[in-house]
Amino acid sequence: MEILDLDLKGFEDWDSLPLSLQNSQAENISNVSTWNGAHGRAVRATWTTELNTDLLHLATIIKQSRKLRILRIQATSELHPLLRLLERRDYLLSSTMRTFLSASNLTSLELDLCGTQLIPHQSQEHGEGFHFCTSIAALLDTLRYLRLRMRSICADVLKPRQHSTNLRLNEVLINLSLSNESPLITSAVHATCCSFSPREFLQLKADMEKQAQVLVAQMAAPKIVRILTHALPSIEMRAFDVLTGRNVALSEGAEWDDDGEAIEDDLSDEESEISDLSSDGDG
Questions:
Q1: Angle, to 10 degrees, between the axis of helix 268-278 and the axis of helix 201-216?
Q2: Residue 71 β-bridge partners
Q3: Which of 42, 57, 115, 279 has a C-alpha 20 to 30 A away from that of 189?
Q4: Apex CA 239: angle with CA 245 and CA 221, to 5°?
């Protein structure tokens, strides 16, 4: 097996608890309370444990594979088809993802984990002891392609363990925007800086762009290196192209590596709005 492609959507067995079929606002609130109550939480917690047990078993198997080259994992937000008021819930354990990253011989890593924070192990208070960004960075010596979107991230993800000027890595796409993560989310949200290196968003963005420039100097033949965000209040996707030093605007639904349209570099007003709205925190 050369490619492993996982598409995770969180808990989906919503019929496991009987809910009212009425479509009134009062009934919807009651149904939300059912899932947010003790029994509803217990049902989803049990499912989460089973999911991560199964994923850990899979990760343990594939890390022994000599043929696996491409690992893609997408984890979107857990969404009830009717109950829009149901709060977002995390469902992936950090220990599970760490095992996936121990796979040897990977040349392409694509992680779009915008739908869930990584839940620390019970023995790791506030996630101490495991920094996911540095675990990804440890793979930069062998990767050729890196594509990331996570709810928490920092510039350490772009720091190889050893300095080199001959990295085979040639494509890097880091998306800090969570604006189109879910059709039910209308607010403009960016990733937050992980707790190992707390920063406000604008500082996180600047740190990511600066470290990406450092990384480019260590790549033997870079093709594309981008840090993506979104503009406010338009929610238009933007990409800082590290190789050219230019910012480009991407059309709605465009791929992260699309050419886009070059825009002016004067983003002071826009960044002021980002600073104001990003302080709302992770939803």
A1: 120
A2: 4, 109
A3: 42
A4: 55
Helix crossing, 25-36 with 38-62: angle to 10°?
Answer: 60
**273 has a pLDDT exceeding 60:** no
Task: Specify the long-range contacts of residues 271-274, CB closer than 8 Å, at least 24 apart.
Answer: 271/202, 273/232, 273/233, 274/190, 274/201, 274/202, 274/229, 274/232
Question: Are residues 94 and 128 in contact, defined by beta-carbon separation less than 8 angstroms?
Answer: no
**Cβ-contact 244, 156 below 8 angstroms:** no
Distance between CA atoms of 200 and 101, rounded to whole angstroms?
A: 28
Residues 37 and 17: their CA atoms lie apart, in Å, by 12
- Which helix (H) or strand (E) element contains residue 227? strand 224-230
Listed residue (103, 119, 126) closest to 49, CA to CA: 119
User: In Å, how far are 147, 165, 167, 280 from 219, measured between CA atoms?
Assistant: 16, 6, 5, 36
Per-residue pLDDT at 182 exceeds 60: no
Query: CA distances (Å), 49 to each of 6, 65, 96, 245, 255, in order?
Result: 17, 25, 11, 44, 34
228 phi and psi angles, rounded to 5 deg: -105, 140
Per-residue CA distances from 76 to 53, 116, 130, 132 (Å): 19, 7, 22, 18
- Whole-model pTM: value is 0.86
Q: What is the pLDDT of residues 29-62, one digit of tens each?
A: 556 777 778 888 899 999 999 999 999 999 999 9
